[in-house]
Amino acid sequence: MIKMIMHGCNGAMGQVITGLAAEEKNITIVAGIDPQDRKNDSYPVFSSLEECDVPADVIVDFASAKAVDGLLDYSRDHKIPVVVCTTGLSEEQIKKIEETSNHVAVLRSANMSLGVNLLMKLVKEAAEVLAVAGFDIEILEKHHNKKLDAPSGTALALADSINEAMDQEYHYVYDRSQVRKARDRKEIGIQAVRGGTIVGEHDVIFAGKDEVVTFNHTAYSKAIFAQGAVSAAKFLAGKGPGLYTMKDVIES
Ligand SMILES: NC(=O)C1=CN([C@@H]2O[C@H](COP(=O)(O)OP(=O)(O)OC[C@H]3O[C@@H](n4cnc5c(N)ncnc54)[C@H](OP(=O)(O)O)[C@@H]3O)[C@@H](O)[C@H]2O)C=CC1
Ligand SMILES: O=C(O)C1=N[C@H](C(=O)O)C[C@H](O)C1
């Protein structure tokens, strides 16, 4: 049985994963971490990782960007593989993830769903044809009114995927409110909408002369992220140091 620590266990994603893990046969949550250590019938909850002395095989993280540095230190010091799903990370934190992966297995993904991970590949292929033909690229993302970071980690990952295929020639534009000139050919515009209970929607728009190609992914429930996270946890438990991605999980 794989023993998992749920980092951010009282949050929206933490609760969905708690429900899902209860039905899983070969993985169980042995401890939860959340600043408000609300009682839980399924496992003990600690207000910080430092207080947690429960042995585990893997940590799954859906918490806060502010908590990611401490999470990586804990994972490295205790040699427990970690699945980092929290978004809104700084460049320094992304570097720290890479550095930590020299010592312990780390998987970071801004989106755990199968559909978005396929989309990463599809937009790359589309860009190789459409961007080269002069189509402009825009990304529009929509999320619920509780989301703290903008643009979404997924929107940035989609832009990075396209930019990788384009030899990093593109730059990202998040706000045109002060701009008084036509858009640059080598920009990817990234816009965020926040409202209500929208689970997560991403449009990648390739706009050319007299034609537009739009790739859309719509999440109808958080269960798709939870399922991906549990699959990633099963994949990562027992793995040696290294930086893994959802591609590794999907292809395993
Ligand atoms: N990769 C993916 O597929 C997905 C990623 N996400 C990302 O996951 C993160 C969490 O999302 P969501 O569950 O909706 O957010 P919530 O705000 O609902 O939950 C986050 C939880 O983490 C807790 N938390 C805050 N600080 C710490 C800490 N130091 N240690 C442990 N727990 C802490 C919060 O407590 P408190 O409320 O007291 O601050 C809260 O209970 C976000 O960054 C989001 O963008 C979300 C969905 C999918
Ligand atoms: O905060 C969310 O809810 C989500 N966050 C992730 C992101 O920032 O891309 C993934 C998903 O879209 C839901």
TrEMBL record:
<feature type="active site" description="Proton donor">
    <location>
        <position position="147"/>
    </location>
</feature>
<comment type="subunit">
    <text>Homotetramer.</text>
</comment>
<feature type="active site" description="Proton donor/acceptor">
    <location>
        <position position="143"/>
    </location>
</feature>
<dbReference type="GO" id="GO:0008839">
    <property type="term" value="F:4-hydroxy-tetrahydrodipicolinate reductase"/>
</dbReference>
<dbReference type="InterPro" id="IPR022663">
    <property type="entry name" value="DapB_C"/>
</dbReference>
<comment type="similarity">
    <text>Belongs to the DapB family.</text>
</comment>
<dbReference type="InterPro" id="IPR036291">
    <property type="entry name" value="NAD(P)-bd_dom_sf"/>
</dbReference>
<keyword id="KW-0457">Lysine biosynthesis</keyword>
<dbReference type="Pfam" id="PF01113">
    <property type="entry name" value="DapB_N"/>
</dbReference>
<feature type="binding site">
    <location>
        <position position="144"/>
    </location>
    <ligand>
        <name>(S)-2,3,4,5-tetrahydrodipicolinate</name>
    </ligand>
</feature>
<dbReference type="InterPro" id="IPR022664">
    <property type="entry name" value="DapB_N_CS"/>
</dbReference>
<dbReference type="InterPro" id="IPR000846">
    <property type="entry name" value="DapB_N"/>
</dbReference>
<comment type="function">
    <text>Catalyzes the conversion of 4-hydroxy-tetrahydrodipicolinate (HTPA) to tetrahydrodipicolinate.</text>
</comment>
<dbReference type="InterPro" id="IPR023940">
    <property type="entry name" value="DHDPR_bac"/>
</dbReference>
<feature type="domain" description="Dihydrodipicolinate reductase C-terminal">
    <location>
        <begin position="115"/>
        <end position="250"/>
    </location>
</feature>
<comment type="pathway">
    <text>Amino-acid biosynthesis; L-lysine biosynthesis via DAP pathway; (S)-tetrahydrodipicolinate from L-aspartate: step 4/4.</text>
</comment>
<feature type="binding site">
    <location>
        <begin position="153"/>
        <end position="154"/>
    </location>
    <ligand>
        <name>(S)-2,3,4,5-tetrahydrodipicolinate</name>
    </ligand>
</feature>
<feature type="binding site">
    <location>
        <begin position="8"/>
        <end position="13"/>
    </location>
    <ligand>
        <name>NAD(+)</name>
    </ligand>
</feature>
<keyword id="KW-0520">NAD</keyword>
<protein>
    <recommendedName>
        <fullName>4-hydroxy-tetrahydrodipicolinate reductase</fullName>
        <ecNumber>1.17.1.8</ecNumber>
    </recommendedName>
</protein>
<keyword id="KW-0963">Cytoplasm</keyword>
<feature type="binding site">
    <location>
        <begin position="109"/>
        <end position="112"/>
    </location>
    <ligand>
        <name>NAD(+)</name>
    </ligand>
</feature>
<dbReference type="Pfam" id="PF05173">
    <property type="entry name" value="DapB_C"/>
</dbReference>
<feature type="binding site">
    <location>
        <position position="39"/>
    </location>
    <ligand>
        <name>NADP(+)</name>
    </ligand>
</feature>
<feature type="binding site">
    <location>
        <begin position="85"/>
        <end position="87"/>
    </location>
    <ligand>
        <name>NAD(+)</name>
    </ligand>
</feature>
<keyword id="KW-0220">Diaminopimelate biosynthesis</keyword>
<keyword id="KW-0560">Oxidoreductase</keyword>
<keyword id="KW-0521">NADP</keyword>
<feature type="domain" description="Dihydrodipicolinate reductase N-terminal">
    <location>
        <begin position="2"/>
        <end position="112"/>
    </location>
</feature>
<keyword id="KW-0028">Amino-acid biosynthesis</keyword>
